[in-house]
UniProtKB/TrEMBL annotation:
Belongs to the methyltransferase superfamily. LaeA methyltransferase family. Residues 1-15 have a biased composition (Polar residues). One of its GO terms (molecular function) is methyltransferase activity. InterPro entries: SAM-dependent_MTases_sf. It holds the Pfam family Methyltransf_23. This is Methyltransferase domain-containing protein. Residues 1-23 are annotated as: Disordered.
């Protein structure tokens, strides 16, 4: 396994300098937007952690649009996004900037102008190019809105060693490391697309968490997974490995959306939207994945040996329902449990 820490120093074996002949992403171009994201968090509970740039800014557009007045804007990578009745915000239709190109070792193929992750055994089918990285960052932003600014729900205290599986752009790992300077944070993914030079207590590695053995020298106090419905053939494999690599009393937390939209007035039933989600479920099954995994997280944690397992099922916070729902209109499951 190989990777680099957030200051750009190449490492392998979870912290050791690599062989110079190995392919390390030392020349990887990085997303400058993520590196500056500490000043773009409008909804963080600890505003002093992220800076107070947003406190003096207007959170509303100057137009008279009634759609825009529904809720404050989201500052997403420098773009102000407002709730709108348009199907896709115009800001998200821009051409990829190419500022975060995956290194050659992380690219399997290019199809329809999109690049995809490579790994000997991994079957992740979503892209890893700049457009996808922007989507992942927006996804993180929306989860923070849904969680009232929090990065996690489990009562973890001050964990010394933290693992973020399927870290994506690394945005969660980086923000967690800033909130917890006492923690050593590792983020793993099939693609080395994470930014460099952000904080010194984060390291990133390319790893297939499901199909390869974990060789961490020290157990973790907290393992985090978010939006991993599309990542694994069998989530139970990763859950079992997490249990084996947690210290006694350590926590695991999984958060995922639920792709079974519901309506209070019954208007969803029989609609084109319902038929679209039915087709989406069928397509996922055909690709060897399932949108039903999140509903099984609690059962799988208990079967693996976790105790004090808590399952939280909730809609968007009421103040942001119409706003956040325009961008990510689903309910979400958060499940966490402790190793005895």
């Amino acid at each position: 396994m190989e990777g680099y820490n957030s200051l750009g120093t190449p490492v392998n074996s979870h912290g050791q300098p690599p062989d110079l002949g190995k392919d390390i992403a030392t020349t990887n171009q990085v997303k400058t937007e993520i590196a500056a994201s500490e000043n773009q968090e409008l909804y963080g509970q600890n505003r002093e952690t992220y800076g107070d740039r947003a406190t003096q800014e207007s959170l509303y557009p100057t137009t008279k649009s009634t759609d825009a007045d529904l809720a404050p804007a989201v500052d997403f990578n420098g773009y102000q996004l407002y709730a709108s009745s348009k199907p896709v915000p115009e800001e998200l239709l821009r051409e990829p900037s190419g500022t975060s190109i995956a290194p050659p070792s992380s690219v399997l193929d290019e199809e329809n102008m999109r690049t995809y992750a490579v790994h000997e055994t991994g079957r992740y089918f979503l892209p890893n190019d700049p457009a996808e990285q922007d989507r992942l960052d927006l996804q993180h932003k929306i989860f923070k809105i849904a969680m009232n600014g929090a990065l996690y729900r489990a009562p973890i205290g001050s964990p010394k060693n933290v693992l973020d599986i399927a870290t994506g752009t690394g945005i969660w790992a980086i923000q967690f490391a800033k909130e917890h300077p006492e923690s050593n944070v590792i983020g793993t993914d099939l693609s080395l697309i994470q930014p460099l030079g952000v904080v010194d207590n984060v390291q990133f590695f390319r790893e297939d968490s499901e199909h390869t053995e974990w060789n961490y020298p020290t157990p973790f106090d907290y393992i985090h997974l978010r939006c991993v419905l599309t990542c694994f053939d069998d989530h139970r494999t990763v859950i079992r490995k997490s249990f084996d690599n947690l210290s006694s009393g350590g926590w695991i937390e999984l958060s995922d959306p639920v792709f079974h939209p519901q309506s209070d007035d019954g208007t969803f039933q029989g609609s084109n939207l319902e038929r679209m989600f039915q087709s989406l479920h069928q397509a996922m099954v055909a690709m060897g994945r399932s949108f039903e995994a999140a509903q099984n997280y609690k059962k799988w944690l208990i079967e693996a040996g976790f105790v004090d397992v808590v399952e939280e099922v909730a809609p968007w916070p009421e103040a942001f329902e119409g706003y956040a729902g325009r961008y990510y209109g689903t309910l979400g499951y958060t499940v966490y449990g402790r190793k005895p």
